[in-house]
Amino acid sequence: MFYIHVQELSHWVQTWDSNHMKFKLRNMKNILFKIPLSIILFTAMFISCSKDLNRLPANSVFTDSVYSNAAGYKLQLANVYAGYVLTGSNGPGSSDIAGVDAGTSDFIRCLWNVQELSTDEAVCAWGDPGVPDFHNMSWTSSDPILIGLYSRSIYQITLCNDYITHCTSTVLQSKGITGTDATNIGIYNAEARFLRAFQYSVLMDAFANPPFATETTPVGPLSFPKQISRANLFTYVTSELLSCSSAMAAPRQNEYGRADQAAAWALLARLYLNAGVYTGTTKYDSAIIYANKVISAGYSLHPHYANLFKADNNLNNPEVIMAIPYDGLNTQTYGGTTFLVNSACVNSTYTAGSPGYAMSSANYGVPSGGWGGNRATANLPALFPTADTTVDKRGIFLNTTGVTSTINSIATFSQGIPVVKFTNMTSAGVQAEPTAGGTFVSTDFPLFRLAEQYLIYAEATLRGGAGGNAATALNYMNLLRQRAYGNTSGNFASIALSDILNERGRELYWECFRRTDLIRYGQFTSGSYLWPWKGGVASGTGVDGHYNIYPIPVTDLQANSNLTQNTGY
Amino acid sequence: MNFKRLLVLLTLPLMICLPALAQDKIVTGKVTDSKDGSALANATVSVKGTSIATQTGTDGTFKIKVPSSATTLVISSIGFGNVEAAIGNGNIQVKLTSTSAVLGEVVVIGYGTARKKELTGSISTVSSKDFQEGSITSAEQLIQGKVAGVSITPGGGQPGSGSTIRIRGGASLNASNDPLVVIDGVPLSSVNLQGINPSDIETFTVLKDAAATAIYGSRASNGVIIVTTKRGKSGKPVYNFTTQLSGSGISKEYPVLSAAQFRNFVNTNGSASQAAMMGTASTDWQKQIYQTAITTDNNLSVTGAFKNIPYRISGEYLNQTGVLKTDNLQREALSISLTPRLLDNHLKVDINVHGSNTDQRNANTGAIGNAVSFDPTQPVTSGKATFGGYYEWTTNDTTPNSLSNRNPVALLQQYNAQNHALRSFGNIQLDYKAHFLPDLHANLNLGYDVAKYTGTTQIPAYAAQSYNSVPNLRGANNQYYNGYFNKVMEFYLNYNKDIKSIKSNINAVAGTGYYDNYYHNNNYANYSASNVLEPGSTPVYPNSFSEVTLESYYGRLIYTYNSKYILMGSVRTDGSSRFGPSYRWGVFPSGAFTWRINQENFLKNSKVISDLKLRISDGITGNQDGIGFYNYLNYYSQSGNTSQVNFGNNFYNFWSPSAYAADLKWEETETKDAGIDFGFFNNRITGSIDYYYKKTSNLLATVYVPTLTNFGNQLTRNVGNMTDEGVDLNINVAVVKNKNFTWDVGFNVAYNKFTITNLSVSQDSLAKLVNYAVGGISGGTGNTIQVHSVGYQPYSFYVLQQVYTTNGKPIEGAYVDQNRDGIINQSDLIHYKSPFAPFTFGFSTGITYKKWSFSTVLRASIGNYMYNNAASNLAVTRNVLNPVGFLQNSPSAILNTNFYNNQFFSSYYVENASFLKMDNLSVSYNVGALSNNKYRLRLSLNYQNVFTVTKYTGSDPEIYGGIDNVLYPRPRIITLGANLGF
Hints:
The structure holds 2 protein chains of 2 kinds.
Chain A: H1 2-26, H2 28-49, E1 60-62, H3 63-66, H4 70-85, H5 107-117, E2 123-124, H6 131-136, H7 144-165, H8 169-174, H9 179-207, E3 211-212, E4 226-227, H10 230-245, H11 261-273, H12 275-279, H13 284-295, E5 320-324, H14 336-342, E6 374-375, H15 379-382, E7 445-449, H16 450-462, H17 470-485, H18 497-508, H19 514-520, H20 554-559
Antiparallel strand pairs in A: 2-6, 3-4, 5-7
Helix pairs in contact in A: 1-2, 4-7, 4-9, 5-7, 7-9, 9-10, 10-11, 11-13, 11-16, 13-16, 16-17, 16-18
Chain B: H1 3-17, E1 24-33, E2 44-47, E3 53-55, E4 61-67, E5 72-76, E6 83-86, E7 92-96, H2 99-102, E8 106-109, E9 112-115, E10 123-127, E11 150-154, E12 163-167, E13 180-183, E14 186-187, E15 201-207, H3 210-213, E16 224-229, E17 238-249, H4 259-269, H5 272-277, H6 285-289, E18 293-306, E19 309-321, E20 328-338, E21 341-342, E22 347-362, H7 366-373, E23 394-396, E24 399-400, H8 408-413, E25 416-433, E26 440-459, E27 476-499, E28 504-522, E29 543-561, E30 565-576, E31 585-596, H9 601-604, E32 609-623, E33 635-638, E34 645-647, E35 650-652, E36 655-657, E37 667-680, E38 685-697, E39 700-704, E40 714-718, E41 721-737, E42 741-758, E43 771-776, E44 784-789, E45 796-799, E46 802-804, E47 810-815, E48 830-831, E49 839-849, E50 852-862, E51 865-868, H10 869-874, H11 877-880, H12 893-897, E52 910-912, E53 915-930, E54 935-950, E55 963-964, E56 972-981
């Protein structure tokens, strides 16, 4: 349209140009006719242009085509899982979450900081915003890492809520999806409900009273979700898990990376163990029931503890119930195990044989990485007979020359024992398939594994849960000890509650359990248990009890007037 | 009737009757300014009805050969009214009168022109004679410091770097704050003056208030800059050749420890092993990366008329070398302007085409920061073969330390980025004066702007800057391709009628516009130097494009009564493809009233007050630029190849949903403006003062939205309000004005203050507390130093209040515990200053004495603050003596702070960056006519960036955004220029 007019105009301009003196009078009528005509034509053109205002993005699609067939549902299930696997959809520098650095917005990275950096298991050398506040126990509602965890968990819940709306039988029928496809989508739907329950449980544990919405709240239009109390959320999460688990794949029958019934039971067992903290009413009986269901589902301990945290831990792994799968090439993030491995070593000038060489990132399969941040306080290695693997094979520390266990300066990485449990080396001792950067890690993060269920069973039994058997509990504890020691020399003759907390420390350290465990034992904020720099003091100090619950991030409080801040903040 | 005229009358019929007898004859004469009788050079003298023409010399005289049939000469000159003179015998004396005195200077406004004295809006014009001089390679710098309330901050000294232009500070947070630039009636899609030859520009007109800008509706919230380019003049071809030769160098290095100071520091504070890491060299790394750079700029233009079609053709060749080694830009530009007048002057045709070809080698500007931080005791070259012979920090002899900084010289020499830009823009404008109704004009303007950018980046495999643990993945060999195609169509009718019987003038405009911007780029994978594909870099789509379209209808009525009272009203409606169908159209009205007080009887005969005008206006403008094209749509994009999800043995590129706000709509700014234009002593002193108050509502801001309600926690939405008030004043004084000596002084001052008044989707009172972190800084991960907060200026620094010793040294880690809870944390951060100057000043003066002229431009900015990020990041012991195997140099600030650890949030680093700068000092000598009036020559010598007076200790007090990470230095430039006319 546009060009036709340019041509037409130029045509009659030329006509006039060549003869304009004579033309003028003769063509007066023509002129009088043509000008109004052209105005009309232009007006017509603009009216026709109105549809030009409907511009659509390239290389993009809309909801209808995304969910047009069963394959689309599978892809979008991947999108739901991506909520906690990746930080964004466009490479490791992208993020779905704003207000926090992209890499720092990763689910495991945030969860790890929240669960470990606040405890005796870790300190971090970095001065990045929010990081020092964890070990100092002085976090505020504007802490970017708290914003990150809160927003990340809620982001995945939002993806789940949206996904679930597309899985109703009415919707499937309208798309003509039936038979096996519909059955599979029923399983996808159950997994989305599981992931939603899992993330709500994270929020319940960390923030106690988060805002709450299910698939009945549409995603997109502005609304102001209301908060749910911690006890009501506990009821919701457990009933959702009980309900969705029946529709999930049987234990060990799903694709790797996806949740099955055992994952739901494992989460139930974990939540029931902590029910007293969440609701004021303990549920040890239920913890035993669901731990038992997992234990009897066909899992067994991995013969080599260290291999649980290596780059090929996705292969031949009988212990892990559910893992977050990372891949140094295809699934890149600056969080996850990439964070855990790189932050625990340095990219140093240490040459082979020199003191400190052991800290070099190349030894952990990340030759270009090594960010020198996280290591343990003296209390973590002190749980072990020796601060290395000579007696207890789980003590994967770098207690080596050039490293001190005493921390005078938190900012100095070599003060505090490095923890090199997570590595990008395979069980064969070689670097995982090299990637472009030499930084990204292929090791998967175990979200649920059998050892935890043993410990849950033992603790719930010891705390008086019905249906537990003391001898079985002791046996489960000793199974862990025997794997750790390679023989029965480390076996317990009997167990006390404190043994279980310490055993959890030895077995599950750096796996995002510690804060929850210390709270259950009343040792997180109180002065009854201290560690170096707890509360920001070198010798450690107790802090106010309100730090047992994290504050609702100020960013959401200000966006949503239905929210009330947790007590003490 | 004098004798001459009688003679003409008598000869006239003779000449008509006897064409066969016609013979050429020589006519001579002189053209002068009616005001003071001074000679007018370069005036065009043409024979009426023919293409025969000449120009006057510097003494105003002319000599022209005319056919004996010719009877009348037409004498014209820009800025003067045309005069016709009868050809008689002997010398013709012609006096031209300045148009500003006769008709009033004509100023371009949106969709038409207006007489300056009858303007209703706040409008400033800078024409070519007042432009900044010297080596100006980017067009907007021509008016730097020339207009009150217009700040132009160059991005730095790199060749080809653009500037940030702000008119009255802008009006938005997350949407664009750039003004709309309109070249020859064609609005550009963005402030993109790259590839435009500055010497093609005739005038800049800056529209500041809503009365002036509202006709541009939705894109006018941040002001409008109308650029007109030079046009052809009838007459015989006149050539103009300008050549400039410039030498530039940096004015100062960023202050860092010298090699001796560094040695002393390491020996005093470091361990023995750290001391052992030092080298034996003394290298001034900044000296190693900067150079004295030569720039040549040659312009040739010709104006004339070809068969009654006036034309102007100009060409430029620019070869600009950067002060950072390896930086070079070469530009060839060609412009053609044709301005035929057809149908007995009823159809004005203006055709402008500008094209440019820019070839640039971009230096690796990372070298600038590395030169600040690289260990000065290390040599440039290592004497070894690794890394191309350059010294680098290593973990062993062949592996560079991946955490350390890199050799700055190697960063430059081992990085070859070749960029190639082709751009063409232009328009054809047809203005038809109706035969049946000469007061009615129909104007059609069709414009285009097309550009293509391609380039390659090559880094050799041995370079440490692109090391990879996999040998065949080392180095880089990458390419890019992108471009755009913008189309503009404007059509309007203008009716302008003097109705003498009721002493009225009516000037009405009604029109429509269509603007379409199309962007495309090819996506390429990354390759190593040996052309091995970098794993995971293959793009999901080989190319992508995006398009945004705007459609508009507008009208304006200006009613003038008795040349004294002027009422203006305009309305525009715009539809934007950025918004959903229900929210797409915005309506932007404005109204203004002007009272020309000096036309009242009590002032009419005043000897003192020659002009006095009161302007009052109010209007609403919109803004939609600067946000995403498709923010209202819930669309899904496929995840990239490094963002796949692993199920079983498969990886999935899932579809990721966008966060969206279906109800997104226009941001609106209401501007109230009251101004006075004045002139004293026959306009020897002129000026204007304006007070304005802007209120932006439905502010397009990226804010937190209630979680659980969208695919993301932040979203660009219409939230909140911001106010902006200020005063602009400018005064021009012709201090001395006589034949041999003139002295002009121009002065402007602007005051501007923003306040954010609301910023949340929730209407709760808590919203007052909200702080949106902005202003990311170097050092650590995810650190930011500025916030948008309700009640404060945008981009306010948000810091911990530093505690000092009694002798003024900052105490490390000691901050004021604002809430007295015994803990220093985020709760103790305070809003402290802003990067925006409340006061800016510009001062220019020019003196001409006979053939000499001198001019200078000074600018000052008072009350702007800068965060010295280079110091906060690098000037700490921990940076010099880190535990990870290398040493780094420190900014000299460490000598004052003695900080061990980074104190990023210390208010110490927020420094007062008020400054006074002399941008320009120039002297020129007008040699005048040479070789029997065949040539005219002007020589000039120019000095740019003469001095800066500031207390700021970082690289430059003038960095847009207020965060200093060591700016690419703005060089001092000395330019020798010659202008030859023939």
